TrEMBL record:
Keyword Transcription regulation recorded: no
Secretion signal span: 1-22
Region feature Disordered, mapped onto this chain: 69-90
Name this polypeptide is given: Outer membrane protein
Keywords: Signal
Ranges of compositional bias, category Basic and acidic residues: 76-90
Gene3D superfamilies noted in UniProt: Skp domain
Length: 167
C-alpha cells in the first residue's frame, strides 16, 4: 500500500511538472503599444481633423437652419397659411439634409478609420506572432482584457460543437 502511495505521488508530480511546462503564456499591453506607434498617432490626428471638419460643416448648416427657423417663427403671424406651410416643408427638408449630412459623415469617418487602422493592426499582429514564435509562447493575452491575441495550441472548438450537437 505504501508503494502504491509513493507511486501515485510520483505520477502526480510528473504530471504537474509536465502541465506547468506544457503552456507558455505571455501578456502584453496592447493599448500602450498602439499608443506608442507613430502610425497610430498620425492616424489619430488625421481622423480628428477629418471629424472636426465634418462637424464644422454640419454646425454651419445647422446654424443657418436655426436662423431661418427663428426668422420664419417671427414672420409667421404676418404670412398666409400657404406660405407658412411651404416654410414648414422647407424647414423639414433642411432638417432631413442635416440628418443625411450627419449620417454620411459618420459612414465616411468609419470608412476612413478602418482604412487607417487596418494596416496598423496587421503590423501589430505580425509583430505579436513573430515574438510569440521566437519565444515559444503558446498564448499571448492582452493584459487589459481577457482576449487572446495569439494562440498556438490545439483548438477544442470542433470537439465542443460535436459534444453539443451543433455545426
Amino acid at each position: 500500500m505504501k508503494k502504491l502511495s509513493v507511486l501515485f505521488a510520483a505520477v502526480m508530480m510528473v504530471v504537474s511538472v509536465g502541465m506547468a511546462k506544457a503552456q507558455k503564456i505571455a501578456t502584453l499591453d496592447v493599448a500602450a503599444i498602439l499608443n506608442a506607434m507613430p502610425e497610430k498617432k498620425k492616424a489619430d490626428t488625421e481622423l480628428n481633423t477629418f471629424a472636426d471638419t465634418k462637424q464644422a460643416e454640419i454646425k454651419k448648416k445647422a446654424d443657418a437652419a436655426q436662423a431661418k427657423f427663428q426668422q420664419y417663427q417671427t414672420e409667421a403671424p404676418k404670412k398666409t397659411s400657404e406660405e407658412n406651410t411651404a416654410r414648414e416643408a422647407e424647414m423639414k427638408k433642411l432638417g432631413e439634409e442635416i440628418q443625411q449630412m450627419q449620417d454620411k459623415a459618420q459612414k465616411d469617418f468609419l470608412a476612413k478609420q478602418t482604412a487607417a487602422y487596418d494596416p496598423i493592426e496587421k503590423k501589430l499582429n505580425a509583430a505579436i506572432e513573430k515574438v510569440a514564435k521566437a519565444n515559444s509562447y503558446e498564448y499571448v493575452m492582452d493584459s487589459n482584457s481577457t482576449g487572446i491575441l495569439y494562440k498556438a495550441g490545439p483548438d477544442a472548438t470542433a470537439a465542443v460543437k460535436k459534444e453539443l450537437n451543433i455545426q
